[in-house]
Amino acid sequence: MDDLLDSVFVSHANSDILKDLVNFHKIDVKTGSSILKIDKNTVSVISKNFRRENIEADTIIIAAGYKENKELYQQVKDMDLKVNLIGDSKKVANIMYSIWDAYEVAKSI
What we know:
Blueprint: H1 2-6, H2 12-24, E1 34-38, E2 42-46, E3 52-56, H3 71-76, H4 95-108
Antiparallel strand pairs: 1-2, 2-3
């Protein structure tokens, strides 16, 4: 989790609440990893240390980059998965638009 927060500026108060919420909801945060494969209930990833791992999940959130990029979305949108395009991948804007997009998706899960 600290790897994630070290890569962008996050105020101390926001950093604390984000860490608390991630811990409270037992969210498994993976940084420096690449997705190898996404199936209906499993994601195969490889870490920056080349360790492969299969993760069972009903929800996957990918937050990567600072530029609009729909490539991953285009690759998975027609799979038998519920996929949402939000934030800068949909349209580059400020962080409030990304948070609002994520809020709207989270309400529907």
